[in-house]
Amino acid sequence: MRQVQVEKVTLNVGAGKDQRVLDKGVKLLKNLTGIEPVKTTTNKRIQGWGLRPGLPIGVKITLRGKDADSLIPRILYAKDNNLPESCFDDHGNISFGIPEYVDIKDAKYDTEIGMMGLQATITLKRPGYRVKNRKIRNTKIPSRHAVNKEEAMKFMEEKYSLKTGE
After folding, report:
1. Residue 114: pLDDT above 70?
2. Cβ-count burial of 48 within 10 angstroms (0-12 exposed, 13-18 middle, 19+ buried)?
3. Share above pLDDT 90 across residues of the chain, in percent, rounded to a whole number
4. What superfamily would CATH give domain 5-165?
């Protein structure tokens, strides 16, 4: 019950209100994973930015299980298997940006997409996290069972040969 596991990998492309960038983001995530991404929409009106509720402003995709395990080495290759300590948070999440998608292993350049970046988030968990998400009698995860920053760094170093530093 104490071993750390990968819960999910989330890839995100923010496009703002530009629909051309949004369409490129959809194509990019579909090319990388082979799965149709989901569009994210705004909830609030921000008049200065020209945003209104329901306007799609980004695309994301969440991978779990074998798909996530096979994608992690590819996206870490884009960062040369080296992440600063600031990419890790205190709750078992690792977040980093990839400035150009062609840096990802086995990603081919597409002239329709051009040069584009994306945000990647790796979420770690331990067995037993289901108790906080179940519908009936959901409870909190005690702090001793949660994944902290040091455990996340150690797990990534052991499993994916990730080097951490400044």
Report:
1. yes
2. exposed
3. 67
4. Ribosomal protein L5 (3.30.1440.10)
